[in-house]
């Protein structure tokens, strides 16, 4: 469980109303209806959707309908985004310590046919509004820090903040997205009532400009070399930039060795910075983590 999680004992109704309105607006903009799910037929559809996205090996489903049924019955979060009868996206999470004060969002995915419509954003805002009604202050989840679009979505569009780098968190997964390599993850915390999250939910996220930061003296601790491979530099400034490749999933298919090299480099550089007390303050869509060092020499 993320250490910053705490229970919201008196979430102000205006915040709950604001979150519900933001979630409704995002769903309307994406053209879907989002609802929590508990019936077996709906949960089986969620399981099939996740299988179609991640393409796990036979006999190793990401999540079964039976497990989702148990999770939903126990009061956890399972929701789907529908365009008419078609399920285009789903998300599920479960409560954690202390005493159901935190929610861990385990899986969220959108079908290929739903890409580009903002369905993922709508699902997360629905989850936020639901969690606030349960008295939850922070939602945590993990993502692959090498996947550029996910880093931008999580850190910029949602304003979540990394709290820990987790090497090979799940072990071998061997699905259509993760491949056969190590499954390093960033654990993020989404502080549901923070000013940055509230403005992001309203569609006005804070953005960072890596080029401008570099012009003002930010150090480049990891960048892409002429061949596209990772090149490390000195993290010797108060603000540090850490690059990721444009499309790690394609790279894993076309050049597995270079994909592994990026994994090792990011683990050493970004993981090392976080372990040393630095914090990620944002992500530039051009492919840069912006890191603030706690102490600079």
From TrEMBL:
Species classification: Bacteria, Bacillati, Actinomycetota, Actinomycetes, Pseudonocardiales
Q: Which InterPro entries match?
A: Acyl_CoA_acyltransferase, GNAT_N_AcTrfase_prd
Could you list the residue ranges forming a coiled coil in this record? none
| PANTHER family assigned to the protein according to its UniProt record, in alphabetical order | GCN5-RELATED N-ACETYLTRANSFERASE, N-ACETYLTRANSFERASE DOMAIN-CONTAINING PROTEIN
Q: Where are the transmembrane segments?
A: none
In which organism is this protein found? Answer: Amycolatopsis mediterranei (strain S699) (Nocardia mediterranei)
| Superkingdom of the organism of origin | Bacteria
Return the protein name: N-acetyltransferase domain-containing protein
């Amino acid at each position: 469980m993320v250490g910053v999680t705490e229970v919201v004992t008196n979430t102000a109704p205006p915040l709950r109303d604001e979150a519900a309105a933001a979630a409704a607006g995002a769903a309307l903009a994406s053209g879907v209806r989002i609802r929590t799910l508990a019936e077996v037929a709906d949960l089986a559809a969620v399981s099939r959707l996740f299988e179609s996205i991640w393409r796990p090996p036979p006999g190793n489903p990401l999540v079964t309908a039976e497990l989702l049924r148990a999770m939903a019955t126990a009061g956890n979060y399972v929701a789907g985004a529908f365009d008419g009868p078609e399920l285009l996206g789903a998300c599920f999470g479960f409560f954690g310590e202390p005493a159901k004060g935190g929610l861990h969002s385990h899986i969220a995915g959108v079908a290929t046919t739903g890409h580009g419509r903002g369905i993922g954003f709508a699902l997360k805002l629905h989850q936020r509004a639901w969690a606030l009604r349960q008295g939850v202050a922070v939602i945590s989840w993990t993502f692959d820090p090498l996947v550029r679009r996910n880093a931008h979505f999580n850190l910029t569009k949602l304003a979540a903040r990394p709290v820990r780098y987790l090497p090979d968190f799940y072990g071998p997964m061997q699905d259509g997205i993760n491949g056969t390599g190590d499954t390093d993850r960033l654990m993020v915390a989404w502080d549901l009532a923070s000013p940055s999250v509230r403005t992001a939910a309203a569609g006005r996220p804070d953005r960072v400009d890596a080029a401008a930061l570099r012009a003002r003296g930010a150090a480049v601790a990891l960048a892409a070399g002429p061949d596209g491979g990772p090149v490390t530099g000195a993290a010797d400034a108060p603000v540090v930039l850490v690059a990721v490749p444009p499309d790690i999933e394609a790279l894993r298919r076309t050049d597995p060795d270079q994909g592994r090299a990026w994994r090792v480099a990011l683990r050493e550089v970004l993981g090392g910075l976080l372990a040393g007390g630095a914090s990620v303050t944002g992500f530039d869509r051009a492919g840069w983590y912006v890191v603030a060092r706690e102490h600079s020499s």
